[in-house]
Specification:
Strand content: 15-25%
Low-confidence stretches: none
Order of helices and strands: EHEHEHEHEEH
CATH class: Alpha Beta
Largest sheet: 4 strands, parallel
Strand order of the largest sheet: 2-1-3-4
Distance between the termini: 20 Å
Number of strands: 6
Helix content: 40-55%
CATH architecture: 3-Layer(aba) Sandwich
CATH superfamily: Lumazine/riboflavin synthase
Bound molecules: 5-nitro-6-ribityl-amino-2,4(1H,3H)-pyrimidinedione
Radius of gyration: 15 Å
Length: 154
């Protein structure tokens, strides 16, 4: 049996983070978690590029362009869509996740999803470094694993 799996080794690798300014109280904590995870796994802080976009709607197009640039081993998409009183949430959250899924399948490097879609601000904060962990950290861990696996698949 031949088993292939990515190791969590960031040494010598370069990553991009694309983050929304919308709901920045939450998304800045996701960025902090993602950077902490990458650095703890050996990525040099100079090898992390941070791109900011207005909102989640803008993530797929921006991530697509960033993933097409030379030199990155992976891209982490971070955002936060919180339900309001109108159907707007469904459209923004749906198109963002669908769009990022398309980008992830088309890109030659891994793209991971650190976009929270929650009913309340409290639920979002719980997932941004309080009682439910930090989904930015989780998305960074996944990109590390996938980047190593993709190198084995080259
Ligand atoms: N963008 C978000 O990132 N999160 C939200 O919760 C949100 N809501 O609720 O509207 C949101 N809207 C803005 C959208 O992503 C675009 O930036 C905007 O429509 C301009 O294209």
């Amino acid at each position: 049996m031949n088993e292939f799996k990515g190791d969590l080794v960031g040494t010598g690798k370069r990553f991009a983070i694309v983050v929304t300014r919308f709901n920045s109280l939450v998304t800045e904590q996701l960025v902090a978690g993602a950077i902490d995870c990458l650095v703890r796994h050996g990525v040099q802080s100079d090898d992390i590029d941070l791109f900011r976009v207005p909102g989640a709607w803008e993530l797929p197009a921006a991530v697509s362009r960033v993933a097409g640039r030379e030199g990155y081993d992976g891209v982490i998409a971070l955002g936060c869509v919180i339900r309001g009183g109108t159907p707007h949430f469904e459209y923004v959250a749906g198109e963002t996740t669908r769009g990022l899924g398309m980008v992830a399948r088309q890109a030659t490097i891994p793209v991971t999803l650190g976009v929270l879609t929650t009913d309340t601000v409290d639920q979002a904060l719980e997932r941004a470094g309080t009682k439910a962990g930090n989904k930015g950290w989780d998305a960074a861990l996944s990109v590390l694993e996938m980047a190593d696996l993709f190198r084995q698949l080259e």
